[in-house]
Write a structure and sequence with these properties.
Number of helices of chain A: 12
Shape of chain A: globular
Strand order of the largest sheet of chain A: 3-2-1-7-18
Oligomer: homodimer
Strand content of chain A: 25-35%
């Protein structure tokens, strides 16, 4: 008898799941239908700032695959189909479609609804000129509005906020960033590293208004003209809300699917929820942090792809596990690259892991080379053992992707001393003879094991 | 009683050793003297091609530290002091100095004589216009000659040969590379990857004459005018011999210090030779290959620095080990980056390790970004287990340093499957959502474990 897999949400997690399940089970064994609320599937939300900036000209470039490609794999993709309710008893979902409501049965259900932007609860968020940047349609709308913008404010100084600020600046719109703390990226970086990034951003002529919260957006004739903050008034006819996202888990919770402490759907390492036959993956689901042993809700495209893949492999009959996360991430503002992996100091403190840190500042290449760029690395190691726990990098071109080397070292439990004696590549156009990642790791381990 | 450390050779291994020993033992406990045959210490041989190209203008930029800096650490650096003989019975060395011969006693002896260029045994190598590129003085001489060169040939297509060919081309001298095999870098790359690099080099207008050996250098009035090869005659008034180097181990062997099968000095993991109190490190010493379990003589600045450090730590009273090598290395020709780590196919075959390979071709960044560059990765995994054994990368800017991630994964014994599910960074300006290193590793592991 043919089983039926229903996938709710056609982005990275959902489509990875569908593809992997299909590779392992033919259409006569498993029928697959994807209900996607919008007209877009498999799109790169991470690419949206580069569409706004103009570097990416065609919005469809951000689509990894088309519905037609999935149809060829016998995956039935239904756009403009919004699932509104799950009934785990009858194993059905209720779907709002352009042609009315449907009740659709499932044997296996993939819950991959993603996340949605969290608008601040202040007056004025519905004014014209106020934007989020989460869906592809958000990106199209913001890009269209940029042409008319004369002064922008980005509320929020996380990854998205900084990337949007860069995009608007590149489009020639004077842009100010509102940061809730005294430094940017406070959920990803320690205060000292965040301060370095903040100064770099200011160096590009992008003001960062620090330790400030949005109180309201003011408008005239329904159009935004400025914002009131805890630190005064700023003129702005473009206001972008980069105030975070939250998992779309309400429908799961209403159906009796258990959420975890992060508010996202709780899953085991096979992406199973507490309800038999119901799987979850991606931004709406939790992940296991390998270092804290705590659930986390990373909101990363890499994680969505991997979790979706694992769920699809398991639905396909394999025994696949998602191994957890280090929250490795990267971004850039102009030519300053920023990356992190593993624990921040505050995270280590909150779970009671004893740590020390080591820092190194140097160059991405041999210092005498024309392309040498400044790079600063902070590494955290476990007190007593020297085991690597985290790293943060700020620097010029060539800096950021070095985080992957440290992420791999942390993933495998290396000490800073072992890592510093490992065999990394060197040539003058690429690094100093001791790559700076090794120097920082050794310093952290030295301090950890005195 | 004060011990005396004599260091033979003041480059990376020797000076690292001296520094590390000094940090741990004061001058009253350990006197340190370095005998260096030339006028240069601590120089970056790897930087020489970039001095020849003109990217580095001042040769002293290639010096990591000066004799004065070592003097301040109470390390006595004697330039133009050539050690000619070691007597392990009397614990003395014979030194030719500008003021005559000395007999100098030692308690601890660091043998760090490095390597020397291997000139091919053909007529004409002493003609004017024929150069090696090993010492800093070689670099100065070659750079001076470039101004008068109208046509160059580089004999040898290893790292140095390619880097010199790039340098000469950038200086406007039409340059041809003579490769002994049908592809370049045959000691570092598999034939298929080497062929890709060869085509890239030709694409820059640098001819590669393949499967060809030098037979003689012809001259008129003592000056080179061309070369005879197994494939015919080529005009050239600049001939650079990039035909490899060999460890300077003769003096050690003559003294009764044991050499290994590579012809370099045999050492244990503490950098001890077979003679008590005599240490060796760097290009003149062997290393242990972590995957083949065989001795190797890598001729890499990274290894020299690490081995010298280990020797110095041990002389300083610690218990430090050199953990071996994966032969990780990197270079570039114009904007093509090339890197490798771990085993080539021929190496795996020679030690009887069963393997499969996986390849991936893609882009360094998300494909829709303006800075996307082509990148190709080949990964080798152990048959049956999927354990990662080697990787080779060719691609545009941003490709090469990815080798470090794979080197770390190989170093720690990861399988391709584990690595493919690890937590690497992603943002559109930096990679695809599955970094291409993960895709290649997964393909290799899939093939290894079917």
């Amino acid at each position: 008898m043919t089983e039926r897999l229903v996938v709710i949400g056609g982005d990275a997690a959902g489509m990875s799941c569908a593809s992997q399940a299909r590779r392992r089970r033919g259409p006569e064994d498993l029928s697959i239908v994807v209900f996607e609320a919008t007209e877009w599937i498999s799109y790169s939300a991470c690419g949206e700032p580069y569409f706004v900036s103009g570097e990416v000209t065609d919005v469809t470039s951000l689509l990894a695959r088309t519905p037609e490609q999935f149809e060829q794999m016998a995956i039935d993709v239904r756009l403009h189909h919004l699932v509104t309710e799950i009934d785990i008893e009858s194993k059905t979902v209720t779907v709002d479609t352009p042609n009315g409501q449907l009740i659709e049965p499932y044997d296996q259900l993939m819950y991959s609804t993603g996340a949605q932007a969290t608008a601040p609860d202040v007056p004025g968020v519905d004014l014209e000129g106020v934007f989020e940047l989460h869906t592809l349609n958000d990106a199209v709308a913001l890009k269209a509005a940029v042409n008319t913008g004369t002064r922008a404010v980005v509320v929020g100084a996380g990854y998205l906020g900084l990337e949007v600020a860069e995009a608007l600046t590149l489009r020639g719109v004077p842009t100010t960033i509102i940061a809730s703390r005294s430094y940017v990226m406070n959920r990803s970086l320690d205060p000292d590293v965040g301060a370095t990034v903040t100064e770099a951003i200011r160096g590009y002529g992008i003001p960062v208004v620090e330790s400030t919260r949005l109180e309201s957006i003011t408008g005239i004739d329904g159009k935004a003209v400025g914002i009131e903050t805890t630190n005064g008034y700023l003129k702005a006819d473009l206001v972008v809300l980069g105030t975070g996202v939250h998992p779309r888990s309400d429908m799961a919770e209403a159906a009796g699917i258990k959420l975890g402490p992060t508010g996202a759907v709780e899953v085991d390492d096979h992406q199973r929820t507490n309800v038999s036959g119901v799987w979850a993956a991606g931004d709406c689901a939790e992940s296991h942090h390998r270092l804290t042993d705590q659930p986390t809700n990373p909101q990363l495209g890499t994680v969505a792809n991997k979790q979706g893949r694992v769920a699809g492999m398991n639905i396909g009959g394999e025994d696949a596990s998602f191994p957890g996360v280090l929250l490795t991430s990267i971004t850039k503002v102009m030519d300053t690259e920023v990356a992190r992996t593993g624990l921040m100091e505050s995270e280590a403190q909150s779970v009671g892991i004893g740590y020390v840190t080591g820092k190194a500042a140097g160059t991405t290449t041999s210092g005498y080379m024309a392309n040498a760029e400044r790079i600063e690395i902070k590494v955290m190691a476990e007190k007593g053992t020297g085991r690597l726990l985290g790293a943060q990098i700020v620097g010029g071109p060539g800096s950021g992707k070095r985080i992957d080397v440290l992420a791999t070292a942390i993933w495998t439990g290396m000490t800073g001393h072992d890592f510093a004696m490992s065999d990394l590549s060197y040539a003058p156009p690429f690094s100093t003879v001791w790559d700076i990642v090794m120097i920082a790791a050794r310093r952290a381990a030295d301090a950890a094991t005195v």
